[in-house]
Amino acid sequence: MVAGLMTKTHKVGLIPAYCSMKEIRPFIQAVKEQNKANQVIVQEVNSWNDGSAAVKIAKNMVEQGVDVLVPMGDGFNIDVIMEAHHAKRWAVGYISDQSFVSRGTIITSTVQDVTNVYLQIAQQYKDGSLPEGSLTFDFKNGGQDLAPFGSMVPDPIKSKIKQKLDEYKKGMFSLPVYPHSLGCQ
Q: Is the pTM of this model over 0.85?
C-alpha cells in the first residue's frame, strides 16, 4: 500500500525470490488500489540469496521508470536497497527494519517478529490449543509489523497507512489469502 502511495512515476518494482510467493498478489492489489494508474513490474530472482541477479533486475526496473523497489528475499534485499540508493529511488525493506542501510531510501520495512511467533506457538502447545496444519502470522496477531516510516513519507500517507492497519487488526476487513501466487505475469 505504501509503495502505491509513494510512487511518482506510477511504477513499482517487486523483486520476489520466487513467483510462487503468496504475498505477490495481495501486494499488487494494494498498490493498484491506491491509484488506478499504478503498475507493478514483477520479476523473480529464482533464488533467496542471488544478490547480483537481484541488482540486475533492479537496474532494469529503474531503466523502465520504476521509482519504488520492493525486494522480497532476505538474502538480496540489502543489495536491492543499495541499488535504489545509488539510483536515487525509494525502497521498502524486508524482514527487519532496514533503514540503517540508507535512511534516505527506505520508506518503511515489513518486519517479521519471529520471537513473538515462536512464543505464541510454544504457549499454544503448552496449553494444548495448538491447531493442526498450517498457521498464519501477520499484522493482526503480531507476526508482522511495519518499521517506522522514513522522513520522506508525508504525514497524510503515514496516517492513511496506520488507519488501514488498525482497521485490519480490528477485523474490519480481511486480506485475500491465496494458496500460491499466479506467478510473475
A: yes
